[in-house]
Structure formats: structure tokens, C-alpha cells
Design goal:
alpha/beta, Rossmann fold, seven-stranded parallel sheet, three-stranded mixed sheet, 11 helices
Length: about 325
């Protein structure tokens, strides 16, 4: 299959491109470099030993996206392109609603017009809101705790409504949890531009000496050690879930959690990183961030039962691969 990958140079998109080629598919990438660097494309082409069609631009540009569908035989879409920082979304809600919703509307509309029948959406566990874990797909979605989560809820609804009106347009909503790690080559990994918003890039900055300490937001959550608990998933496991969804999802609307089914606290992740990589991470315990919840982890049974998919890599592998990438890309 020839797959349009929106946001294909980002952290999750780039690793999924590798998985696509490993399974014998091809990619056409569109990315505007808003949270990715130009070197990622070169590294992807090195990994897969092939040139990848690439279009620079934002998927809210309907003329640009229409030309991609006209000029390439697209068999499916993997839609990653979105702003994704919870804290930033609280500070800049208009930017998040404008970009994320328009991106979904534009690419879905054009995919439908060009008779593309497979559409996989990069959703998030934030759609569940603040309710007890483990999250399972049949739960009611509570109001999102931040605008980022709200854009994911709204995008899901848009895609479900389109598929209801056009059942041949098969939509898969992948609600995933907290991807970390990197490709085991160390060539690609998570390299956000600017100040990191996620835990692992911040740990890596501290480990590399770029920042004096890791800020731990909240020590009074109702968890074993007081820090927030999340379901961390290796980015290559997550990438493989997208390819499984493209190949195997059968119903007009398919909804799956992608996680390990286990929660790890911030302090447990730090401890694993220190132990596996023999690097000390100084901590600064500070106040909770707005929009964060205490505990979030998946019930991953449905994707295993329906697609035969499950994660393979544990937390130790995640922190080891993340550090391998950081050292290689920073020549540490």
C-alpha cells in the first residue's frame, strides 16, 4: 500500500514510516517542520535504503493536500499532524483548535473525495478525561481536561460521523498513551524543538547536561510515590500498531487503545533510566501542572483480541533506546 503520512517527520510519524517499509508498504510524507527537523527525512531514507516522496507544508492547506492525492496513488492515510502539548494547549487554545481540527477536516475530506478507504487517526488517552484507570474503549468520554484532549475528542467525532455517512471510509481511532524510546539504530528518536513538554526528552536534556534538573510536576498525587502515573509505550511498538490497524481493521469505525496495560510513575521512569544507563538525574519537585491527571493506563485487551497486536518492549528497553539515540545525536 502507498500511505500518506501527515506529520511523518515527527516522533511517532517517523518511526511508523520505518514500520510501513518493514511490512512492504510505501509512504508519502507531508510535514511543515513545526516540531521536526529536516535531517529526519535523510535518516529515514538511510534506514529504509530508499527515497521517500516528501512534501513540505501544513495539512490545513487544502490545495497542497489535494495535489498530493492527485499526484500519488494513495491507498490509506495515517494522520499524525497536530499540535500535542497539553500545557501549551491550555495557554493557547485557539491555536490548538484552529490547527488540529482544520487538519483533520481537510485531510479527511480530501481522502473521501479521492476514494481512499483506510484512515488511521492518531488519537490519545486524553479523550477519556479524568476517570479511573484502566481505560477501556467502551467507557463514556468525560469532558477533556485540556484543549489538546478536546481537539482529539472532536476529531474522533468528525471521523466517526464521516464514516457513518460513508461506510466504505474505514476509520481507525488509535488512542495511545505515552510513547518514549527510539529506533534501536539510534538514528531517529524524539527531538522536540524548543523546551521539551514531555518527560523523556526532558530527562535526556538533563542527562546530557543541557538542563540542571528534571522538574517533577506534583508529589502529592494519590499514587504510591506521589508522582503521576502513565502507561509508557515504546515508540516502535506504537508504530507497529498503526501498521496493524491499516492492514487488519475491518469495521467502518474501529477504536483501540494502544498501551502496555501497566502504569509507571515519573519517579519509576527516572529510576529505570538511571539504573539502565548509569546516569544520575537531579530532580526538582514542583507544583502540579494544570490539565494533568493522577493516573492513566490502558486496558489493551481489545486490540490484542481483534488485531492480534500486543506490545513487545518493556520500560528498560524504552529508556535504553532513548539514551542511545540521545548520545548518538548529541555525540555524548
Amino acid at each position: 500500500m502507498n500511505i500518506l503520512v501527515t506529520g511523518g517527520l515527527g516522533f511517532i510519524g517517523s518511526h511508523t514510516v520505518v514500520s510501513l517499509y518493514e511490512r512492504g508498504h510505501q509512504a508519502v510524507i507531508i510535514d511543515d517542520y513545526s516540531n521536526a527537523s529536516k535531517e529526519v527525512l535523510e535518516k529515514l531514507e538511510t534506514l529504509i535504503q530508499s527515497k521517500i516522496p516528501f512534501i513540505e507544508g501544513n495539512v490545513t492547506d487544502s490545495k497542497l493536500v489535494e495535489n498530493i492525492f492527485k499526484n500519488h496513488q494513495i491507498d490509506g492515510v495515517l494522520h499524525f499532524a497536530a499540535f500535542k502539548a497539553v500545557g501549551e494547549s491550555v495557554e493557547k487554545p485557539i491555536m490548538y483548535y484552529e490547527n488540529n481540527l482544520n487538519a483533520t477536516l481537510t485531510v479527511a475530506k480530501l481522502a473521501l473525495e479521492h476514494k481512499v478507504k483506510k484512515f488511521v487517526f492518531s488519537s490519545s488517552c486524553t479523550v477519556y478525561g479524568d476517570q479511573p484507570s484502566p481505560f477501556h474503549e467502551e467507557m463514556d468520554l468525560l469532558p477533556a481536561t485540556n484543549p489538546y484532549g478536546a481537539t482529539k475528542q472532536m476529531s474522533e467525532q468528525i471521523l466517526k460521523d464521516i464514516s457513518f455517512a460513508h461506510p466504505e471510509f474505514k476509520v481507525t481511532l488509535l488512542r495511545y498513551f505515552n510513547p518514549i524510546g527510539a529506533h534501536d539504530s539510534g538514528l531517529i528518536g524524539e527531538s522536540p524543538l524548543g523546551v521539551p513538554n514531555n518527560l523523556m526528552p526532558y530527562i535526556l536534556d538533563v542527562a546530557l547536561g543541557k538542563r540542571p534538573h528534571l522538574n517533577v510536576y506534583g508529589s502529592d498525587y494519590p499514587t504510591l510515590d506521589g508522582s503521576g502515573v502513565r502507561d509508557y509505550i515504546h515508540v516502535m511498538d506504537l508504530a507497529e500498531a498503526h501498521v496493524a490497524a491499516l492492514e487488519k481493521s475491518l469495521k467502518p469505525v474501529n477504536i483501540y487503545n494502544v498501551g502496555t496495560g501497566q502504569g509507571s510513575s515519573v519517579l519509576e521512569v527516572v529510576k529505570a533510566f538511571e539504573t539502565m544507563n548509569d546516569v544520575k538525574i537531579p530532580l526538582n519537585i514542583t507544583a502540579r501542572r494544570p490539565g494533568d491527571i493522577a493516573v492513566s493506563f490502558a486496558d489493551p485487551a481489545k486490540i490484542k483480541n481483534e488485531l492480534g497486536y500486543q506490545t513487545k518492549r518493556d520500560l528498560n528497553q524504552m529508556v535504553k533506546d532513548a539514551w542511545n539515540f540521545a548520545k548518538r545525536s548529541n555525540h555524548a
